[in-house]
Amino acid sequence: MSVIDVHHEVTGPEGAPVVVLSNSLGATLEMWDPQVAALAERFRVVRYDTRGHGRSPAAQGDSTIDDLADDVLALLDRLRIGRAHVVGLSIGGMTGLRLAARNPERVDRLVVLCSSAHPGNPDAWRDRAATARSQGTGALAEAVVGRWFTPAFAEAHPDLVARMRETIAACDDEGYAGCCAAVGALDLRDQLDAITAPTLVISGADDPALPPEHQGAIAAGIRGAALLTLSPAAHIANVEQPEHVTAALLAHLGGIR
């Protein structure tokens, strides 16, 4: 499948180390708003919309994790960036894992949030893709956003939850379905020991989408990886626990254990 010219935004000083931020399935680059200002004080921050999300074009048909990784490499090449830190949540974390295993020369440090090397449940992902194609992503929005935040956080932030629901519903139906296929087919378990980038893995203790055992398996498979579990936090942990996630990113990307 051909590379998608993904929409992106760049913030922070020229010449600073580069951090690439990769969004969750159903979200856009705006999900990183809580982290950007602090990161941009010390890093050149590159955010992008995964294919079929936000302002990025969609591919027709199913995508693979290699397609998503290729999109990132093409973006780095366009921006003339040889090497970058990579931070990804959910499908963004899966993209980061594949990049770090396949193209180690391009990844400096890696942070993987609320993600998995092997989500499993391929039938459920096929069903979700079929629903997106037949009924639209709006039919999925309520259930998906219900897994993104703990009930207490959702109750306290109804406007944020409503905005996230609208973001999911605005995804390209075909593009979202294609990314579901990439998640459903994913199995990076035998590639984790190839990752040499210093890695931080972050869990949401209350994540019903990809529970903490998924992140524990990632951390166990990558030599020297650190594991941080946040509570309370569900799937979009960087939004629910913004101060803790931002501090962890700054420490890890700055080389502090």
TrEMBL record:
<dbReference type="GO" id="GO:0047570">
    <property type="term" value="F:3-oxoadipate enol-lactonase activity"/>
</dbReference>
<dbReference type="InterPro" id="IPR029058">
    <property type="entry name" value="AB_hydrolase_fold"/>
</dbReference>
<dbReference type="InterPro" id="IPR000073">
    <property type="entry name" value="AB_hydrolase_1"/>
</dbReference>
<protein>
    <submittedName>
        <fullName>3-oxoadipate enol-lactonase</fullName>
    </submittedName>
</protein>
<feature type="domain" description="AB hydrolase-1">
    <location>
        <begin position="17"/>
        <end position="241"/>
    </location>
</feature>
<keyword id="KW-0378">Hydrolase</keyword>
<dbReference type="InterPro" id="IPR050266">
    <property type="entry name" value="AB_hydrolase_sf"/>
</dbReference>
<dbReference type="Pfam" id="PF00561">
    <property type="entry name" value="Abhydrolase_1"/>
</dbReference>
<dbReference type="GO" id="GO:0042952">
    <property type="term" value="P:beta-ketoadipate pathway"/>
</dbReference>
<dbReference type="GO" id="GO:0016020">
    <property type="term" value="C:membrane"/>
</dbReference>
<dbReference type="InterPro" id="IPR026968">
    <property type="entry name" value="PcaD/CatD"/>
</dbReference>
